[in-house]
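Per-residue structure
===
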Amino acid sequence: MKLLGMIGGTGPESTIDYYRLFVAAYRERKPDGSYPPLIINSIDLTRMLNLVSANDLTALTEYLLQEIRRLAQAGATMGLLASNTPHIVFDELQTASPIPLISIVETTCQAAVAQKCKRVGLFGTRFTMQAGFYQKVFEREKIDVVIPEVADQEYIHTSYMTELVKGIFQPETREGFVKIAQRLREQHGIEGLILGGTELPLLLRDVSAMDIPLLDTTRLHVERAVSEFLA
């Protein structure tokens, strides 16, 4: 029997969103009244971010791999990381993982290809915007990934860490993010915007004023996971 394992808690608000979306998507595709089996391993966000900040990618890989092994030991047959930032070491995790892992980056890239995008913007933590793992995957499909200028990156990252991760979603922050997205469209001609942080959809998912197609990484990841689960 298939069992999805999720590395969550990175952060808690988006993990709740993942759970709700996964259950809803499963029940939409399988309208027999059943619910999907799912294991969530909620890990220490602070420990993970400290390792990322220190650029100790070896220790980060070992930490996440240890937590993935816990999912496997609990019976998970496939897994995902409910966060963009730890995908910095996704290739290393995928190689060593005892269960198949579903990449949020590969999944988002497939969606961008389907939408015929040639240039997209990227929002996320500073680590996600600067590390290059999105750029590397999208480059294979000849899609340019544009990140905001340094001051805007700092605004996004600071807002992310001091507000969004803590479940604080303020109208003025939403407005600030929308203005940055509009600048990317006007100055760089982006055809879509990657919400490369799983709290970002909670802030921007329902913003009609954006007028830029959103690549909602949380929803895309969940839909891919449900497809894999039901395949």
